[in-house]
Fold these 2 entries.
Entry 1:
Amino acid sequence: MAKKKCPACGSLNTVKIIYGLPTPETIEAVYRGECVIGGCCVSDIDPKRHCKSCGQEFGGGSLYPLFEMTSFEFYVGGYFGPSHHLYIDGKRKNKLIRYAKTQGGMYVDLKHPKNPINFHPEVLLKEIPLPSEKWLSFIKDLSTLEIPCWNDEYNNVAILDGTQWELIIRLPNRITFRKNGSNSYPPYWNKFTKILKKYVGEDIG
Ligand SMILES: [Zn+2]
């Protein structure tokens, strides 16, 4: 069977999680390190795989909570080269992606589109409408990345300055996924930036 990559650390050393009362065959497979036992509560959102390198569990129904996303915020950039900023208000009826490209690490305030800081001549500002079918396909694309299972931080301490990034996804009931990094990225980073490019139409990251 094809090994699945861990969304937190990128290791291919991952095994299936077996739920329910284990059979003698299951127990033998556990001893051989081919699977782990995951308790007996079976639901659609239980993780399906366990990473033997970092311990992360993943492959659950990560699709469902993102449908209720109340906001999506993303930043990548640094003092050199362009920075990219994205914001989606998930509570808005007519959803849109607010996108800004800035230079020299300049800040924008996409939550408040009328903020004069957004109208600096060096800020490229775009609003991309997300009609419901596009919104749903955006959520489905994001769900393939298993963002909730990413590490909270990816840091390469050997490099000063360079590129920083932050992704904040908010869900109802104050659930927040906050992921960030400094010159280091999660395993699905390229896939993630491709998805953003697909919707924004700009090279990001
Ligand atoms: Zn891992």
Entry 2:
Amino acid sequence: MVKQPMILIADDDPNIRKLLGEILEEEGYRVDFAVDGVEAKNKLTKNVYHVILADIKMPGISGIELLEFRNKICPGTAFIIITAYGTIKSAVSAVKNGAFNYITKPFEPEELISVVKSALEEFQSFSVDFEKLNNLFIGTSKITKEVIEQIKIASASDVTVLITGESGTGKSLVAEIIHKLSPRNKFPFVKINCSAIPDTLIEAELFGYEKGAFTGAIKRKPGKFELANKGTVFLDEVGDASPQFQAKLLSVIEEKTIETIGGTSKKELNIRFIAATNKNLKKLIEQGVFRQDLYYRLNVFSIHLPPLRERKEDIPLLASHFVNLFSKKFNKPIKNISSKVMELFFKYPWPGNIRELRNVIERAVVLSKGQTITLESLSHEFLEFTNNKDFKKRQILIEEKQKIILALEKARWNKTKAAQILGMTRSQLRYRLKKLGLE
Ligand SMILES: Nc1ncnc2c1ncn2[C@@H]1O[C@H](COP(=O)(O)OP(=O)(O)OP(=O)(O)O)[C@@H](O)[C@H]1O
Ligand SMILES: [Mg+2]
């Protein structure tokens, strides 16, 4: 089913919101509302819209400021200004600044519909191929759905993105998807591993050199930034960049120019940056090992990928995705996973996140005999690990914790009631709470 375009209506006048909403819904569009510029701004970072209709005069953030924000965060969304008779001049300058058009209050429904229609026609070509996204980034949990929405927003815009999350949560994958779905996808995606380049080679690697720049420079070599021109640079493990590396990055991101070693002039660059790290950059800033100014440059739009243990609902779909992938690769007839294995997958905390799940399934596919992945097809290491006493103990504690929290929530944090639900005395419950570190 083709979904109807989604329109955001931002106006502080409730009557205008209602009127616009009714007219547009009647035409079959989906609508969402923001009561002022602040709410609209908020919504633009959470959802994807095809058209924004914004009043020019709103308390807090005006329509003009909202337009500037949209230029940065979602330039692929058409922006239509709603203006009153007295503010036509600013509406005209808004159009120069990237708004598609404006409508003046009072307006005729036909006029509104025709402006929205032509905006949709004109902006359609910019729209990102989101259909693909569900096959690229897999998962059904609420968290993953939110991440997918953020990927959409990041793909439609050109802002710098910072992706955070533990190792194996999919940071590199997200960076690649954003590039693939972005208007820069015809140009290179260049990955720079910030922890792997020694200080002495940074300049040569990033900026490149001219022939004869130093002994051994027998021919010109372009640096990574030059190779990525018009495309995307992925700064992987940016939290591990040395101080010197950080300083170089900051100047390139700020000035958008480079100078090759032995070169005579600066070269303009047109690059989009995406950075990723499994480190807590704020902590590194506190410790004085990461530059705050660089952090602000990178963290314009942030995407956090929670660990797999916090989104276990994703496991079945991810698991079957990997089963299909590796069955094809190794030419095996495997179709499903036994319920015992799935049960174990749900219990296991996956410290290596999705990468670990992928590896476990790859090995299981190789070891499997029939059509189903059973406990026998799991590797010894994995089974040993999950049979490990500590793992079991920890698992029991986790389950107990969950049970107690559930009971407390049910009892609205009344301990006597919660103890009743759990079938223990109040003092027993207090003892357990202390033991489990819940108090
Ligand atoms: N949601 C997902 N859907 C499908 N595959 C995924 C998903 N998330 C991660 N993967 C896969 O899991 C593996 C690990 O992901 P990735 O390499 O992107 O993790 P990472 O966060 O960059 O890890 P590191 O910090 O170690 O670099 C990859 O093979 C990736 O394709
Ligand atoms: Mg990675």
